Amino acid sequence: MYKFVHQSLDVDRHWVFDALIATGARASEIICLRYRDIGVTDAGIRYIHFKHEPLDKYPTKLKAYQEGERMIPMHSILMKDKYQELLNEGSEGYIVNHSTTPSSWSGWFKNQILEPLGIYEHKSTSLHSIRNTSIDVWREAGVSAEFRRAFVVHSAKDVQDKKYGAGLKMMPDVLANELAKVDLSFLS
Q1: pLDDT digits (tens, 9 = 90+) for 64-91
Q2: CATH assignment of the domain containing 97
Q3: What is the count of structural domains for the chain?
Q4: Please, are residues 153 and 169 in contact by the beta-carbon 8 Å criterion?
Q5: Is residue 152 part of a domain?
Q6: Which domain holds residue 115?
Q7: CA distance 138 to 14
Q8: How far apart are CA 188 and CA 184, in angstroms?
């Protein structure tokens, strides 16, 4: 499937697909990323800052509102030259020049990828299922449940992670150490 997506010349579609795999984010979060959502820590770790800003000039919405905000380090798969060009193209606006409506992306994925490959299953395979794949890949790589929850902003089981401090989701340098365990080279 990965090679099938990357056969097109559409770098925006490549970026969305790879960002979904590398971050475990929801499609609505990736397609509404803005140039200013990409940052670099003092330690030099490049990250994506998922923010809930529904009233912004370029709005972004997170399912859990402010609770869903997080700073996720960029996996090396998102550091390819073609993506660096894409990310450096502008300073304002959305990174992706296609629709910011998740249903249009879901339709593209179903009609242009899943159905032609003969792997579409109603209510089983979808653009959102890439999120599940990411979690499974992290699990296989030995990324602990605590870190997996931080990446996808699932509820913490520990009261201190729920109530006290910023938590792992706002520590891209710490998350980067765990993300380094994840080998996505099998995709290319």
Answers
A1: 999 999 999 999 999 988 898 888 877 7
A2: 1.10.443.10
A3: 1
A4: yes
A5: yes
A6: 2-182
A7: 21
A8: 8
